[in-house]
Specification:
- The structure is a single chain.
- The protein has about 200 residues and is an alpha+beta fold.
- Helix content is about 35%, strand content about 20%.
- It is elongated and about 70 Å long.
């Protein structure tokens, strides 16, 4: 167990587990000292409090499992660890606007590079390629919006063929919460070398 309890260790750490956002922040992602209780320690808690403590502990343990997979997936995507890469890194990104797809708000981005498997075809053949290659920039695939030393947020791809056929292609990213969405917008407006890297971690929207 960590030497100190939850709350204040990073910007997504709270004593009340219900306040914790599911997806990690950069601060949390880089933090390497998880907090949880062992079964023996849970058993020593007064019975009247034990049920809520078990919920708290189970939530934190499941999130740590997810964070471990995310860290590994991101390291593989960035070439820092061996493993199966999805091989798509979207770069030269700029904001095109806000789209509503399937009742979900998405950030639409002009994509200047990273889709060469599609853009190498002439305009008439790109749609056929996208329709035949469903796993290319797969719908609901998961990734991270990154700077040089910063994780700005995690998002899912909302695959819209008609938008991908535009010149330059438009990619829709669906962020899990308003805070992540706002952080991504600020980063795209103020930072350089922003890229969106697909991660082979099974996380669902």
């Amino acid at each position: 167990m960590a030497a100190f309890g939850p709350g204040g260790r990073h910007d997504n750490d709270f004593a009340d587990f219900r306040q914790i956002r599911i997806y990690p922040t950069t601060d949390e992602f880089l933090f390497k000292q998880p907090y949880y209780l062992r079964a023996k320690e849970v058993g020593e808690i007064p019975e009247s409090e034990r049920t809520m403590v078990r919920f708290d502990n189970r939530f934190r343990l499941l999130r740590e499992d997810m964070l471990g997979e995310l860290r590994k997936g991101l390291q593989v995507a960035l070439g820092q660890k061996k493993g199966r890469k999805l091989g798509i890194i979207l770069q030269n990104l700029s904001i095109a606007g806000l789209y509503i797809e399937e009742d979900q708000p998405c950030l639409a981005l002009h994509c200047g590079s990273g889709l060469e498997r599609m853009t190498r075809f002439g305009a008439s053949n790109r749609k056929k390629f996208l329709m035949d290659s469903k796993n290319f920039l797969k719908h609901q695939s998961f990734g991270a919006l990154l700077g040089d030393d910063e994780i700005y947020g995690f998002a899912h791809v909302n695959r819209d063929v008609d938008l991908l056929l535009q010149n330059p292609p438009l990619v829709l990213l669906q962020f899990p919460d308003d805070e992540s969405f706002k952080k991504a917008v600020v980063a795209l407006k103020t930072s350089r070398n922003i890229r969106f890297t697909l991660v082979s971690t099974p996380v669902f929207a």
